[in-house]
Amino acid sequence: xxxxxxxxxxxxxxxxxxxxxxxxxxxxxxxxxxxxxxxxxxxxxxxxxxxxxxxxxxxxxxxxxxxxxxxxxxxxxxxxxxxxxxxxxxxxxxxxxxxxxxxxxxxxxxxxxxxxxxxxxxxxxxxxxxxxxxxxxxxxxxxxxxxxxxxxxxxxxxxxxxxxxxxxxxxxxxxxxxxxxxxxxxxxxxxxxxxxxxxxxxxxxxxxxxxxxxxxxxxxxxxxxxxxxxxxxxxxxxxxxxxxxxxxxxxxxxxxxxxxxxxxxxxxxxxxxxxxxxxxxxxxxxxxxxxxxxxxxxxxxxxxxxxxxxxxxxxxxxxxxxxxxxxxxxxxxxxxxxxxxxxxxxxxxxxxxxxxxxxxxxxxxxxxxxxxxxxxxxxxxxxxxxxxxxxxxxxxxxxxxxx
Length: 403
Ligand SMILES: [Zn+2]
Description:
The chain is an alpha+beta fold. The protein has a domain at 2-84 and 140-172 and 191-261. The chain has eleven helices and five strands. The chain has helices at residues 2-17, 33-44, 47-60, 102-115, 151-166, 177-180, 184-193, 198-219, 248-258, 261-301, 304-334, and strands at 72-75, 85-95, 121-128, 132-146, 378-379. Strands 1, 2, 3, 4 and 5 form a five-stranded mixed beta sheet that branches. Residues 1-17, 345-350, 357-391 and 397-403 have low confidence and may be disordered. It binds zinc ion. Zinc ion binds at residues 160, 164, 198, 201, 383-384. Zinc ion is lined by residues 160, 164, 198, 201, 383-384.
């Protein structure tokens, strides 16, 4: 086995020295382990890139580079983007059905969630309330590298995207997002400069390319190499020969203006506001259904602990209503047209909190806690995605509360 590994090493080594301009898959359109191995081999050769890879693998939750296979894809040629790692977030709500042994029930729900987690998913938020839990799952899709990229371009993209992935540690949280960013400008700046944000990703990707160009010169004895030839023209003077950034302003201008990230981020911010507003509406609808499903039971039994539960749910609903209004205000501040009727679409018929005491429950009995409620996922387009706008602000949860 060791002999075989050594043999493979010797077979593999010359490919590092091979032409960096050759196609990264040698023209093949179906991804093979050997294509990824090529990129990994480059990465391993540079301690800094290796660190980026390690962080990303940690984030993916994998130990073996062979498992990278499930996160990488070949994209069609002609695709504008060189690479893209689109993380997707989904939020779920589960009822805690019984008033007894609440901690045990929560534990059971969590265990089930973790047990059912696929390898490309990760639990990023877990919010416990007295009557339900809410949790968010991060769903990795793929690093996408165009079929027509050269080996060095693909390597640069690989490092760039890995840099993003290594720092993805949290989803946008509906209850914190509004306080986290003051507005679109703030969102642009913070996302640009965030750990694992575009600035760091571009820095890492370009540095890796420059260093790879240098290492080629050392491994071959050809004519003098232009280390910067692989970089876009406008940032070639932003780095030195060691790949260090010497003019950050130039790189930022490139990212925000030339690469269009200013408007991408602004659109992303709007998308986030819409999506998180809708998530609050979904949570309200969940709470309303939960509340209404307990009303019948309370009417029959008059149990005080059920009354307490109903009151808690009403309070939670009131909180959500306030939060929903704050989202609307923020949207109206920057994109007032979004909230005009021609743009809004009512996604669900309005639901109301049933009146404890007279109204009948419209939703029947309480749901079992192992039922998973699947709302619209909260998408977080990132990196090279062009953001498609869906100016759709969901209505649905009725504001009025009954005593
Ligand atoms: Zn990026």
